[in-house]
Design a protein that fits this description.
Blueprint (H helix, E strand, L loop, with lengths): L3 H13 L1 E3 L5 E3 L4 H18 L6 H14 L8 E5 L6 E4 L3 E5 H6 L3 H16 L2 H14 L1 H8 L4 H15 L8 H17 L6 H11 L16 H24 L9
Parallel strand pairs: 3-5
Antiparallel strand pairs: 1-2, 4-5
Helix pairs in contact: 1-7, 2-8, 3-5, 5-9, 5-10, 6-7, 7-8, 9-11, 10-11
Length: 261
């Protein structure tokens, strides 16, 4: 029989776990943000030890220039690292870390296309998708035990939970987000790049290039869990009028990024 204090705690945590994403969607996130951010920091440091960092200063300047044009809209101090990796991929982690693969820089034609991906990845962090995913998976797998673990992190179960989540964080950029998360990050990223002065219309061209990058052997790695190509383009086109307005406002404010590849 579940004791009343536990039921009270469960109710309180469920209520506090209700959050709202930047697009207005209701979310379930009960993991402490500080814990999620720490996981992101640890995962990024681990990646920097495991993966070679590109020595191409031009690539690093290109990625950093684009990120720095977008980040004032977000706030905080961010680290941007270009990894020597031929896959067309990029990621952002809680704790304000951004990684870009050289394969993606090789693929894009211009600053606007790379801004599409960087904006998308920052969107995942802004919407706390890692927290939401971990909260959902942990709650489903552990049920009531999850609540007790969070309430008593020093317990044996709590320590096990933290260990599992720590491992999950390190693999977090490998574990796919849901298609709902990907679609939401598309919208957030489109708005961000437009507000920074980048051309949002290039986003459609970028996703078309990404979908063709597999050379007939399926989509690029980055798109493996994303919405169907037609669905993504349709959703971007629906949002495009608003994004173009954001870009016009940005240009009027003097925001005209000039990031050379």
């Amino acid at each position: 029989m579940i004791k009343k204090p536990i039921l009270t705690l469960l109710s309180a945590l469920l209520v506090s776990a209700c959050a709202t994403s930047p697009t207005g969607r209701t979310q379930f996130t009960f993991m402490p943000d500080a814990q999620i951010n720490q996981m992101g920091l640890q995962a990024f440091e681990s990646l920097k030890k495991q993966k070679p960092i590109s020595q191409n200063s031009r690539y690093q300047q290109f990625a950093s220039c684009i990120a720095q044009a977008i980040l004032p809209l977000v706030g905080g101090q961010w680290e941007v690292v270009v990894f020597e990796d031929n896959s067309q991929n990029a990621f952002a982690l809680p704790g304000n870390k951004i990684g870009v693969h050289t394969g993606l820089i090789d693929l894009v034609d211009n600053q606007d296309q790379l801004a599409t991906v960087i904006g998308h990845e920052i969107g995942h962090v802004l919407a706390k998708h890692s927290n939401e995913r971990m909260s959902q998976e942990f709650a489903v797998s552990q049920g009531m035990a999850a609540v007790q673990a969070i309430a008593a992190p020093q317990s044996a179960l709590g320590q096990t939970a933290i260990g599992l989540l720590g491992a999950g964080a390190e693999l977090g950029i490998i574990l796919p987000y849901s298609r709902l998360h990907e679609s939401e990050a598309d919208v957030i990223g489109l708005d961000l790049m437009a507000k920074a002065g980048f051309d949002p219309q290039q986003s459609i061209l970028l996703w078309q290039k990404m979908s063709q990058a597999g050379g007939g052997q399926g989509p690029a790695e980055f798109l493996s869990t994303h919405p169907a190509h037609g669905t993504r383009i349709e959703e971007l086109q629906k949002r495009m009028p608003q994004a173009l307005q954001y870009r016009q406002q940005a240009i009027a404010m003097g925001k005209q990024p000039r990031c050379a590849k």
